[in-house]
Amino acid sequence: MAKAFFRLQKFLRRTQFLLLFLTAAYLMAGSLLLLQRTRLVIQQGSRGTSASQVLPVLDGEAAVGIMDPRTLQSPRPGPRLLVGTEVMQKLAPDQWHGPRWLMSRNSGLRQLRRRWFHRFISDQEPAQTAGFKATKHTAEHKGTYVGCFSDDSRERTLKGAVFYDLRKMTVSHCQEACAERAYAYAGLAYGAECYCGNKLPAAASKPEECNSECKGEKGSVCGGVNRLSVYRVEELRAGARRRRNVIYRGCFRAPENLTDTFPASLIQPNLTVEMCSEFCSKKEFPLAVIRGRECHCGYPTGRFSLRDGADGLLCSGTHDASGAARGRYCLVYQTPVQDTRCTDRKFLATKSKAFVALSSFPGAGNTWARHLIEHATGYYTGSYYFDGALYNKGFKGEKDHWRSRRTICVKTHESGKTEIEMFDSAILLIRNPYKSLMAEFNRKYAGHLGYATDRNWKSKEWPDFVTSYAAWWASHVLDWLKYGKRLLVVHYEDLKRSLIPKLKEMVEFLNMTVTEDRLLCVENNRDGNFKRSGAKQKDFEPFTQEMKDLINRYILTVDEALRERNFTGLPREYVPR
């Protein structure tokens, strides 16, 4: 007995020494880590970054522990079955970005995490590569620096194409983008915005007023607040790949007096489309209008709205040997210059009294509707999610907290009583479920502007996707009809067909007024940058008969629910008969 007790005592004594050794090692490791972090803060502070900018993120692993899944790139809420049926528990693999305990419903925690994430993606750059990037891109600056110029959202200094890049904007990237589109000047502002144009104002600002560092290029200046760092890129255009596509808009009846309707004109023997387009582009007008030897430049207006096209033969004169009708009609082309009458946008000066949702099922055209609303009203729209790709396309409301009430309305794909009753009113955007399912599947596998591959469509994920998301399409509409306080139902197909009347209806619902010229500008820029690129599959039918039967049942259910609540039913083109 005594021997056994002695052995136990000896073992415990060794254990104490072992625990003491491990504790000391742990403390030493912690001290070394703290010293390393302190050194990193001092080094970054010496490069112009304050310690407070470094403290929110200690390392990549810490970020995972506090990141709000809603702030990642367009996460989608989980699909739910129809109202009155069992809620589906299975979510798509891409919807989970961490353990369930991370998905806190506490708004304070979500706001804290969201602010941290925004600060992280905006301010943090890998310290190891900062010096390399500055050296590399400084050598790549090929344009001639012109100076620092003032810029106002109401009256842009450079009125051509506009590009954004929240994290990777560089001087070279902006120069190349403008040179490829054959513009003469490239200007950078706010460290992340790029503007192109062909004309500069006579007076420049003080050089020190351009003081914003490029987001993707340490040590380089990309303008400032309402200031542009401007480069001349004409020497780059010769070797640049041209993108100056001129789009044929059609044949239209000419207004009574062309010179009064259009602010710039040119008369040229042997006039060609290229000559007229080049002339109007240099004058920074979006329309080039040709009638015989006459070239006119301007905008769509109430006197020349481009809504009622004519037969192309009327512009060719082949139907009339005398050519008498030729003078009454003109050919219209879209130049690469953007119509800037509706591109100025800002946040609301005071908090909105009404908290309005722009709600839709994923793939139903929510981003396109936001583009139309922002350009029509002149105010940014917000988002329940954070999508860096959309921020880079100019949706600055993506970075604003969704409950700030500084935006005209808030994008959401959420459904359910709690999420819906947070809003005072909502625009409910509904699209054909067949088109919505395909659009969302494309987005899931190829981003906002790409197409899923044949391999994706033929995988086992597509049938599972249809089964769960078709139910979610129906439950989304039914939930908003049931719990929404004040609704405006807009059908995507009607918006495409009758853009101006439907957009007016949406703007009035938001208690805003808009001028006719601004609506014409929106119509002229109706597509924005939201058409998918790449080869689209022709005559492609991904739906089996079993899938169609399932979707058709949901369509009939939603159509009946809309009519019961005195709304217009679903468009007849996709309601089963």
TrEMBL record:
Residue ranges annotated for the WSC domain, each copy included: 142-234, 245-342
InterPro entries to which the protein is assigned, alphabetical: P-loop_NTPase, Sialate-O-sulfotransferase, Sulfotransferase_dom, WSC_carb-bd
GO MF annotation, one: sulfotransferase activity
SUPFAM superfamilies per the UniProt record, alphabetical: P-loop containing nucleoside triphosphate hydrolases
Record's keyword annotation contains Repeat: yes
Keywords assigned by UniProt, alphabetized: Repeat
Keyword tRNA processing found: no
Origin superkingdom: Eukaryota
Entry protein name: WSCD1 protein
Family in the record: Belongs to the WSCD family.
